[in-house]
């Protein structure tokens, strides 16, 4: 799994203009079983998407299609993560 941690590159009002498209993008990944969880940071300076993929290359290729990235509104850092405790420790994609 990869934590995709975003930093907004534009004012929040500008980012929010693309939010519906971003959420539709995330919904599409959820339908494919690739996103166990996602949400905004607090304070709202970016967000985190948990991608259920095996490689950094897969994570970066998927996130490159995010409307926030395509419009230059956010950049992401990919951090590999293997949950070993809690509800995600044995998580399997429903897809």
UniProtKB/TrEMBL annotation:
A Pfam family matched in the record: YCII
Domain YCII-related: 1-81
Record family assignment: Belongs to the YciI family.
PANTHER family: GSR2449 PROTEIN, YCII-RELATED DOMAIN-CONTAINING PROTEIN
Name this polypeptide is given: YCII-related domain-containing protein
Protein species of origin: Winogradskya consettensis
